[in-house]
Design a protein that fits this description.
2 helices; 86 residues; 12% helix; globular; mainly beta
Length: 86
């Protein structure tokens, strides 16, 4: 199982007023396409097959091109083993 571990969750008000009051996780596009699970704290979230709430494109500050970040609402739910198998 491949796991992506973000450093922090993002407050929704930083993304826009319609996202205020929620927590989000930013996942690189490549990680979503390869089927990584997102782990933060003791919780896991699957992103493969889920539509992101927002997509933003950024230019690399060192001139290596651009990259996409997909933003998903972080739901506090513990993933059990039967969820991983299915």
């Amino acid at each position: 199982m491949k796991i992506y571990k973000p450093k922090a969750l993002i407050s929704g008000h930083k993304l826009g007023p319609e996202y205020a009051g929620k927590k989000y996780v930013a996942v690189p596009k490549q990680k979503v396409e390869r089927g990584y699970y997102v782990a933060y704290g003791n919780n896991l979230m699957a992103t493969l097959g889920k539509e992101p709430d927002m997509r933003l494109r950024f230019e690399d500050r060192y001139g290596r091109g651009s990259y996409w970040l997909y933003y998903y609402e972080w739901v506090e739910k513990k993933l059990v083993m039967c969820d991983l198998i299915a």
